Amino acid sequence: MTTSTTPRWRLILNGKSAGDDDVREAVAALRDAGVQLDVRVTWEAGDAERYVAEAIDDGIDTIVAGGGDGTLSEVATTLAHRDESADALPTLGLLPLGTANDFARAAGIPDEPEAALRLLLQAPATPIDLLKLDANGETHWAANLASGGFGTQVTTETHEGLKKLLGGLAYVLTGLSKLGRIEPLQARVQGPGFDWEGDFIALGIGNGRQAGGGQALCPDALVNDGLLDVTIVPPLEGDLLATFGTAMTEGKDAALDRVAVRRVLPWVEIQAKQPLTLNLDGEPVEAMTFRIECMPHRLRMHLPADCPLRGNPAKVAP
After folding, report:
1. pTM, whole model, 2 decimals?
2. In terms of CATH, what superfamily is 8-129+298-302?
3. What tens digit of pLDDT does each residue of 8-20 get?
4. How far apart, in Å, do the first and last CA atoms of the chain sit?
């Protein structure tokens, strides 16, 4: 890492936002403020990993993921599977430019590009956990949340054109169109002191709190407690379905508690009788057996001082 007093940042920008005038103006403003800020634009699979490696070799202080939850996960994944400790790696920042921006919204990161970048100057990096998922002999990482069931179907089936036109509302419309044909899934979910088996319509395993354009499946999750928030929603009928819809969009803990099984665990294992798809920050992973662990304090990330996802240091797991 460099010892220079001039901040050295590398923005890894999703190619979809390369022509965004607000982003260009924000980059220029931070350069005027004294930040040495270089930009790399992703075009195809593998670009983010290559750019992260280059940034580390160049002694960059902070890597900024410019995009949605998928871009954040891709950059975080590349950092996470390196051999270096969190303290030896560049810090991580987020410039939210996606459709839903679920992690950014739950974390309180500004939508406006210049404000999001200036946050990196104002907020020292803090340790965060990551979610690690093993399935089919492969390891996947995520910063936010793994979801299955109805929410996953909504996220993966929402049309790209609709998302561009309507933003997060596209997920809601797609979800409403599915309400009459939700098919329950079946699985066994196990963890320390926990063993549940049955049908479910939604499953959330969170480091972050929401996915799929605002579905608050894990409304109490923290990114620095060393634990996963697990939410299982069984099939619903009548008023309970309306209650669940309110909980998903507004994050009402009491409403979610009425309909869901909720636990806080360091790891879970999932066994399904049929292939099950989990959405991992936008990446669908299909398998019949999953193991998901919380990896405590794997990275350092710039988050607002009042970020709701940060727990009291005295109360989080070591």
Report:
1. 0.83
2. Probable inorganic polyphosphate/atp-NAD kinase; domain 1 (3.40.50.10330)
3. 999 999 998 988 9
4. 25
